[in-house]
Design brief:
Layout: H1 3-14, H2 47-56, H3 66-89, H4 95-105
Helix pairs in contact: 2-4
């Protein structure tokens, strides 16, 4: 008699007592992929390489909307600034060269919003679009 409840319990939990219903074993979660960081090297830290790659990286996205381009530009600025910092920290670029590139490329500090192309700063209307009202 003691065996009967354990056998019936096993049938209920295994799905045999209920056709069409099965219990799949829980799969273990896969580990997160490893994070890889770009390791600056002497060639990547040359001012000419930084200039040319900065100018070329957004070219494939030229057909995107101004809002998307502004977000991509924010990401590009953040990545370029991080690269400049790493190059200076590793002694592969002088601080003066990094400052010059920052200004020359028009980089912005992280967190600085980049308005979409053609957008005016808040509170300022474009002069061409201001027309007198024709309402009575």
């Amino acid at each position: 008699m003691i065996l009967l409840p354990s056998v019936l319990g096993g049938l209920c939990w295994s799905g045999a007592a209920s056709p069409g219903w099965t219990v799949e074993p829980e799969r273990p979660q896969s580990p997160p992929p490893p994070t890889r960081y770009f390791d600056s090297d002497p060639l990547a830290c040359k001012p000419e390489a930084i200039r040319s790659s900065y100018r070329a990286h957004l070219l494939p996205y030229a057909d995107q909307s101004p809002v998307v381009l502004a977000r991509l530009r924010r990401l590009q600025d953040d990545m370029t600034l991080a690269s400049l910092k790493r190059c200076v920290q590793k002694g592969l670029l002088l601080r003066k060269e990094a400052s010059t590139l920052f200004r020359e490329l028009g980089l912005t500090l992280p967190g600085t919003p980049i308005p979409p192309a053609g957008a005016m700063p808040p509170g300022q209307a474009p002069q061409d679009s201001v027309q007198p009202s024709t309402r009575p």
